[in-house]
């Protein structure tokens, strides 16, 4: 049995690599809380990027169709850069909100990791009676 987390291939839509978290044999409450929070944040992250990327692909195809309807068979790099800029501008608030939430969630994970490390240190001190 593997005693480490395992990482899978990138999801075809979100482009994120799924992680299967190892569950230690004698997982403590602190370790479990951290593992579950990491799973929750990964799921939230995956859902955001799946929705974002699907919206991007849909809008990009609509843009290309609009160009095609105007008799333009292949979009130039300049035309696509206009689309990309417009897409990013229209989704700026969504990205800011995502980043703010992502930072908050990661601060929680860092706090839980610190708790886990403190718990492990206390266990180690008890074992070696420092």
Rg over C-alpha atoms, rounded to the nearest angstrom: 22 Å
User: What's the order of the H and E elements?
Assistant: EEHHH
What distance lies between the first and last C-alpha atoms, to the nearest angstrom?
A: 33 Å
Number of helices: 3
What is the strand arrangement across the widest sheet? 1-2
Q: Report the principal-axis shape.
A: elongated
| SS class | mainly alpha
Chain-averaged pLDDT:
93
The percent range for helix content is over 70%
Biggest sheet details: 2 strands, antiparallel
Strand content: under 5%
- Taking pLDDT < 50 over at least 5 consecutive residues as the criterion, the unreliable ranges are none
Q: Count the beta strands.
A: 2
Protein model, in words:
- It is a single chain.
- With 130 residues, this protein is mostly helical.
- The chain is built from 3 helices and 2 strands, in the order E-E-H-H-H.
- A two-stranded antiparallel ribbon has the order 1-2.
- Helix 1 runs antiparallel to helix 3.
